[in-house]
Amino acid sequence: MVMFRFFADPRDISAKSIKLSEEDSKHIRTLRFRPDEKFIVCDSDGTDYICKLGERADGSFAEIVEKRDSRGEPTVVCKVYMSYSKGDRLDYAVQKSVELGAHEIILFESERCVAVPKDIPKKVARLQRIALETAKQSGRGIIPSVSSGGHFYSVIDEAMQNTALSMFLYECEEQQSIKNVLEQHYSQQCNIEDKTTKPISIITGPEGGFEPLEAEMARSKGIRIVSLGSRILRSETAPVIALAAIMYQTGNL
């Protein structure tokens, strides 16, 4: 049976009980849980606590029944660098990226962006809320962070730092497919520890795609330029397909 999931601040977790947020307490009261009905509270760091309301059934505290590792976290850490897009496309891309196992989402402005938010902090806060709700729904053990990384030229270096593999999704690439790059990367026998401890970064563009100069800059930094196939994908579809390919290749699907 699928149990409801909530997240708690680790500081609110003791040996036997968890203090729930006011928002989650209200939600639990709305759900009308029975005192012995089980639900999950996660510490946002990969540990799940199976809980029940116990004698104090007002939703303010959860009584811990069992502790276990979260089952919804992939074995690979993926950082998604995602260009701003218009309308609800960014909402969709963030939601589905969290569902598929993205560890972190960094937003940036590129040359062909058609809709950069006027109030970026407000937009980021909204997307962080989407990430939270999606993490609950999909059984994640963390709440993936959503942040703004500024302009393309400032995030391109970050995408290479302390990573096992960085990939630039480019619709004009004709030589390297994401399938071939992933197979090559995981078939190599060197740096095995790096492959399991360092993240994979993917960089994906806006509705109009990337400028050739941006692709060349990424290539000059040592980032792998990859194709997602012969069809042109929407900006909100590309990161989802890339994450699905990574999760499949690493045995997380």
Topology (elements, then pairings):
Layout: E1 5-7, E2 17-19, H1 22-31, E3 39-42, E4 47-52, E5 61-69, E6 78-83, H2 89-100, E7 104-109, H3 120-138, E8 145-151, H4 152-158, E9 165-169, H5 178-187, H6 192-197, E10 200-204, H7 212-220, E11 224-226, H8 238-249
Parallel strand pairs: 1-3, 6-7, 6-10, 7-8, 9-10, 9-11
Antiparallel strand pairs: 2-5, 3-4, 4-5
Keywords:
253 residues; alpha/beta; Ribosomal Protein L25, Chain P; Alpha/beta knot; six-stranded parallel beta sheet; five-stranded mixed beta sheet; 34% helix; elongated
Q: In order across it, which strands form the biggest sheet?
A: 8-7-6-10-9-11
Overall pLDDT score: 91
CATH architecture descriptor text of the largest domain: 3-Layer(aba) Sandwich
Strand content: 15-25%
Describe the model.
It is elongated, with a radius of gyration of 20 Å. The model has no long low-confidence stretch (mean pLDDT about 90). The chain has two domains: about 60 residues, Ribosomal Protein L25, Chain P, CATH 2.40.240; about 170 residues, 3-Layer(aba) Sandwich (Alpha/beta knot). The strands form two sheets. It has a six-stranded parallel beta sheet with strand order 8-7-6-10-9-11, with helices on both faces. The chain has about 250 residues and is an alpha/beta fold. About 35% of the residues lie in helices and about 25% in strands. A hairpin with an 8-residue loop joins strand 4 and strand 5. The protein is built from eight helices and eleven strands. Helix 2 packs parallel to helix 3, helix 2 packs parallel to helix 8 and helix 5 runs parallel beside helix 8.
